[in-house]
Amino acid sequence: MKLLLLDAGHCLSLGLARTASSRTDLELNVVDADRIGATDIRACQADVVIVPPFVSPADAAPADVTAHAEAVEAVLAACIETDTPLVWCVADQMFEQGGEGLLDEEEVPSPIDTALRRVIATGDRIRAELPHHLIVRLGPLFGPDGRDAWLPTLIERLLAGKEIRAAEDVILCPTSVDAVAMALIGMLQQQRCGADSWGAYHLAGTEPISTYAFVSIVRTQLVTRLEGIGEAVTPGSLKALTLNSGTPLRRVLNCRRVLETFGVHQKPWRLELSRLLDDWIAQRAPTAPISDPT
């Protein structure tokens, strides 16, 4: 299966590249651009086009959000012309007001913000004009590298002694980039084998947690691991922010449909976080000298 992946520097693009490199049934073509034309799809004979998410649209400049929507629509036009399936990943922030319970996959976000509504209109076009599509809504991504990977930025700021501010009243499900990459490839392989289950799906980590609590766990585990290799650190402090008066804002995605349709389980973010920090420490720790057997 040949995949055409946009936005090469995005953390999800790098995660997909890592996953694809260990498989013989995938050919991954990655481009730096955030938009392509029909000629590009034909040139690499792509079976699927994948667009990574605009990770924090609610916090971005409206012009940037609108530009993303326009780029996705350009990709949509190319996919329609070539009859190529499109995978578009979308951030959970599209559910601007959250929800008291789980946010179901059948529920289309209805934000108040004008720029976010522009992105929703793009999703409506995809649903109406391209039957073979996957709109995959993701929890906040974290990964080892790439743009919007979250974790490297946290580590850098903590080690630099900088204060980190995080909301204690925004509840979400952190989501591993590598887990998303594996899930997407599994879903696409099943589609290629005749599943024919197109539409919107949710994919997130298990265990809802506040942004502040998640950052606090990263800080604690980072310090513990550094002390374990003999490094004494004084990490940056944390400051809890209250962004919502009264009830906390909950963005907890219901991932039932992706489980029932493709057998994709939500991956515990604690396990993924622990694995990534272990990998980071392994790269940082000094290499032990090799003893001379003679």
From TrEMBL:
GO molecular function terms attached to this record: dTDP-4-dehydrorhamnose reductase activity
Role according to the record: Catalyzes the reduction of dTDP-6-deoxy-L-lyxo-4-hexulose to yield dTDP-L-rhamnose.
Cofactor: Mg(2+)
Gene3D superfamilies cross-referenced by the UniProt entry: NAD(P)-binding Rossmann-like Domain (3.40.50.720)
Record-given protein name: dTDP-4-dehydrorhamnose reductase
Pathway(s) of this molecule: Carbohydrate biosynthesis; dTDP-L-rhamnose biosynthesis
E.C. number: 1.1.1.133
